[in-house]
Amino acid sequence: MSDKIVCKNFDYFITSRCTLNCKLCSNYIPYIPHPFHTPKETAFREMKEFFQIWDYADRIELIGGEPLFHPDFFEILEESLKYESQFGKIRITTNGTIIPSEKIFSLIRETDKRIEFLVDDYGPQLSKNLSQIIAKCDEYDIPYRVDTYHGDSQYSNGWIYFGDCKTDLGYSDEKLAQVFHRCVVPKEHFVMVNNGKAFYCDYPMAMYQVTGNLPTNGGYIDLFDDSIPLEKKRDMARHLWEGPFSSCRYCTGFDIENAKRYPAAEQLPRRCVQEG
Ligand SMILES: C[S@@+](CC[C@H](N)C(=O)[O-])C[C@H]1O[C@@H](n2cnc3c(N)ncnc32)[C@H](O)[C@@H]1O
Ligand code: SF4
């Protein structure tokens, strides 16, 4: 058996700031008390530590908040490319509000289709620059996918409400096991990196940002804790998805087949904390 530690998706969460304010955002951006762009030095260190633990990620997904809102997006992308032997592709998931600079498009073109865009189309009122982004991708011959979420056209039938990050849903142990068993996240082998930590799921990552609480029984690795030997971190990575975790008690579960779906990107009024 190969001893290599591999994940399908490395969700590289580089900012908790966003140009939109979606009520049901799965990363809970409107509810984060002090949103910030991850300083680039921190982002570089997260990437370095991640690739010491994981030998390979099929894909790095640059995500947030709105990743293109990060003032050092170009540098972070450039840094990611240094690990080219340890990942397959890079995907930039954007809400269609920001047109990347020519410098960014040129860098992407040089990578010969290893970097692609996922442009979420939340409708012309919100994803205002969608057509310009697509036109630029065509001009630079960069692959992209558009997922449409407006009106009756909702990709995957719309979004899911996972919980408010604060309320224990009062599951019995049996119900908790069922929620975890039906959840797609542990099966997908995604890793979410943010705040110097690698999480097995977005929800505990969001809970940490919203409430400051970490899961009490695993489900994350502190990438910046140098007192944990690398071999121990690698061992934790091998078992990262073995739950359920305390955070699952607060979550409705990402049950692709049965979860209730809602129209995407309903906007909340802007709050002053977003402007910080
Ligand atoms: C949190 S967003 C961040 C990237 C970017 N700001 C955007 O909206 O495309 C990442 C992805 O999660 C999806 N998403 C957000 N909230 C969701 C929810 N409650 N249920 C399912 N998918 C969700 C978005 O459509 C997007 O494809
Ligand atoms: S656009 Fe909406 S879904 Fe995407 S990060 Fe911003 S608030 Fe969340």
Short description:
The protein is an alpha/beta fold and 276 residues long.
Low-pLDDT stretches:
272-276
**Average of the residue pLDDT scores:** 95
Number of strands: 9
The assembly state of the depicted protein chains is single chain
Terminal CA distance: 49 Å
CATH topology annotation? TIM Barrel
Shape label: globular
Organism: Candidatus Ruthenibacterium merdavium
Keywords: Iron, Iron-sulfur, Metal-binding, S-adenosyl-L-methionine
GO molecular function, one term: iron-sulfur cluster binding
Domain Radical SAM core: 13-125
Can you offer a commentary on this structure?
This protein has helices at residues 40-53, 73-80, 102-110, 130-140, 173-182, 185-188, 202-211, 230-238; strands at residues 6-13, 56-63, 87-94, 115-121, 144-150, 153-154, 190-194, 197-199, 220-222. A nine-stranded mixed β-sheet has the order 6-5-4-3-2-1-7-8-9, sandwiched between helices. It is an alpha/beta fold. The chain has a single domain (6-250), classed as Aldolase class I (TIM Barrel). Helix content is 27%, strand content 18%. The site of S-adenosylmethionine has 15 residues, from strand 3.
Key descriptive features of the protein:
276 residues, alpha/beta, TIM Barrel, 8 helices, 9 strands, disordered C terminus, binds S-adenosylmethionine, binds iron/sulfur cluster
